[in-house]
Design a protein that fits this description.
Elements: H1 3-26, H2 29-38, H3 43-64
């Protein structure tokens, strides 16, 4: 496994974990209350979801990319 693919795999795993924890944070009571009053979930939930999505995409591209 090349260094690029190893970094891609690490980013992919990290991204999936961030998506999982971000979704749990999004469904939390604190986020629901914040969304009720402000119209948007907590910043922490959004940052975890966005960071997880970006990390997952970059990791997938690095793992799948040839040469």
């Amino acid at each position: 496994m090349t260094m690029q693919k190893a970094i891609g795999a690490a980013l992919l795993v990290t991204g999936v974990l961030l998506l999982f924890f971000g979704y749990n944070e999004y469904q939390s009571l604190q986020s629901e209350v914040s969304e009720f009053f402000t119209g948007s979930p907590t910043d922490r939930a959004l940052m975890m979801l966005i960071g997880g999505a970006i990390s997952s995409v970059i990791g997938l591209v690095l793992v799948v990319r040839r040469g």
